[in-house]
Amino acid sequence: xxxxxIAFSGSHIDRADHIRNDPQGLAxxxxxxxxxxxxxxLDPALTAENMLxxxxxxxxxxxxxxxxxxxxxxxxxxxxxxxxxPSGSPHAGPASWHAMxxxxxxxxxxxxxxxxxxxxxARHRFCAVCGSPxxxxxxxxxxxxxxxxxxAEHFPRVDPVTIMLVEHAGQILLGRQPxxxxxxxxxLAGFVEPGETIEEAVAREVFEEAGVxxxxxxxxxxxxxxxxxxxxxxCHAHADDPAITVDITELEDARWFSREDAIxxxxxxxxxxxxxxxGAPPPTAIAHLLLRWWVERG
Amino acid sequence: xxxxxIAFSGSHIDRADHIRNDPQGLAxxxxxxxxxxxxxxLDPALTAENMLxxxxxxxxxxxxxxxxxxxxxxxxxxxxxxxxxPSGSPHAGPASWHAMxxxxxxxxxxxxxxxxxxxxxARHRFCAVCGSPxxxxxxxxxxxxxxxxxxAEHFPRVDPVTIMLVEHAGQILLGRQPxxxxxxxxxLAGFVEPGETIEEAVAREVFEEAGVxxxxxxxxxxxxxxxxxxxxxxCHAHADDPAITVDITELEDARWFSREDAIxxxxxxxxxxxxxxxGAPPPTAIAHLLLRWWVERG
Lengths: 298, 298
What we know:
CATH topology of the largest domain in chain A: Nucleoside Triphosphate Pyrophosphohydrolase
Order of helices and strands of chain A: HHEEEEEEHHEEEEEEHEEEHH
Oligomer: homodimer
Number of helices of chain A: 7
């Protein structure tokens, strides 16, 4: 697994961050040639060929703010931040799951990054320090408080989340959240808190959710997950004692599964089905990639 | 380096997160036995024996909010969020560097986690969604908008930052920021942005800051860095072409250093001095740990 395909990574757009700090350079990109990513609320608009749909800056509402996503060749790519959005679940909805299933990897990554940024702007129109309005700055990679006495600078959030396969005697620990589809089990996961390493967060989450103590935490892979703006940190760890105590405020169930269970579930999910022992997460989820990594290392 | 000592990790306090959601359990901990971490602004207050100084809840100002840090045995540990703080640099100041030099590892971790949380509260008294005031919730692990029509929930930030040793032909790439002490060079670093994996962020930052393309990024270790709330993600990568183009808006200089340079600099910094070729970062910085990892792997 030296070069895994991780959903939401590999955008072809050059972030060209030097332009963010260059008001003249940024203005010069806002021509009739510039591309505006079409969104339906926060969902992607797709063409008949299952590509991202792009328009021109003329399509943006007059009172919208524009986020500079980067360069496609020499053309500026932007996304529109509207003045209001329907409030919705932070989790991926049907339109996002559809996009994950049909979009080319680089296109999906472009959408994911844009979605995280646009939703951050939509939820940060006011200054958390003083309550005054904020205005988009640096091409959308900052918001600045408009109050002359505050002028606080705010930056897009990226929330690190640990997600881990815990192993004991050739089996792995998976859990089931109430909101999961029928039969689905997946890797345990939880946000990294202030004052923790990745490795400490893994150990705390597994103990909180399943009552299992772990050792020898190793990092496997990461994934940006734009619902709304997580950085998934995929890890592996070992447990010496398999006794499980499920925290029912977090999980409906947690169990140990064998390598055969995992192989069967991965085969079944490729056909959209559950395996005999459980239903695996879909290929776009990092939990799927962790399962695949684990069964392939033998 | 199977068990590196990473500054700001290893707090002895049990986060006891189930109590955060239990108002009665939380209230029951606010007794005369509870401990209140003493802070001087955001700096630590130290005893004559170089331990963290703790008082009782009676020491908190009447209009302060209380953050539940966790349990020390069966005693609740809290920190005070005052109504105002002197505005200051987000970087570590002299009092913090002193604490890093003298505090026992677990104590330093307790301070770091508390500092990140308290400074987050101090800068999030208002709702970023609607501008209304917010109130502390869930023992300080959330703030909630007081507006009945909004009620938005806000969570403490943890900002992932990549920091990387790039290697070419047995040498490593280090850079110098203008604010560094005389002679200091350190690993390049930068925030992970929405829509990026750790590995993509490493590649983008090294190219932006030094014009160097990298491959084969591997994760080495992580560190919480409470200035104000970073999660440092220490990585290693390889470069095929050593030609450097320094981005002078970010760095004053960037250069390749040999293993002998690094060994000499690590020896010198143990005595508070610069090495012959450069001054290494202090032992509490993850860049120091990365350098040590690199020279020890031979």
